[in-house]
Amino acid sequence: MIVYKKYQKAKRIVDKCDKRIDDRQRSQEMTTRECVICYLIFCGMTNAEISAYLRIDCGHLKNLLTIIYRNAGVRNRYGLAGWWWARL
């Protein structure tokens, strides 16, 4: 039940932030999926929770995170959360 509520909260947050995600996507040349993953990491979701929410394999998510880290110029998810926060 807690995980379901976390998914619902993440869905509401992503829906409300579509405009911000679109603006960031244009400025940083990131795909919409990459922007959503960044935001979900910023919200504190784990890889398993994000992969279940987006219905993708955990290995595929890790590959996407590697690309996102490289594009953002950070080394880990904590750096990515800070990078995302600085651009809100």
Overview of the molecule:
- The structure is a single chain.
- The chain is an all-alpha fold and 88 residues long.
- The protein has one domain (21-86): Arc Repressor Mutant, subunit A, CATH 1.10.10.10.
- 80% of the residues lie in helices and 0% in strands.
- It has helices spanning 2-16, 18-28, 32-42, 47-54, 58-72, 77-86.
Q: What are the secondary-structure elements, in order, as H or E?
A: HHHHHH
**The CATH H-level homologous superfamily:** Winged helix-like DNA-binding domain superfamily/Winged helix DNA-binding domain
Radius of gyration: 12 Å
Overall outline: globular
Tally the beta strands. Answer: 0
| Count of runs of 4 or more consecutive helical residues | 6
Overall CATH architecture: Orthogonal Bundle
Structural class: mainly alpha
**What count of structural domains?**
1
* CATH class label: Mainly Alpha
Briefly say what this structure is.
The chain has helices spanning 2-16, 18-28, 32-42, 47-54, 58-72, 77-86. By secondary structure, it is mainly α.
Layout: helices, strands, pairs:
Elements: H1 2-16, H2 18-28, H3 32-42, H4 47-54, H5 58-72, H6 77-86
Helix pairs in contact: 2-3, 3-6, 4-5
List the main descriptive attributes of the protein structure presented here.
88 residues; mainly alpha; Arc Repressor Mutant, subunit A
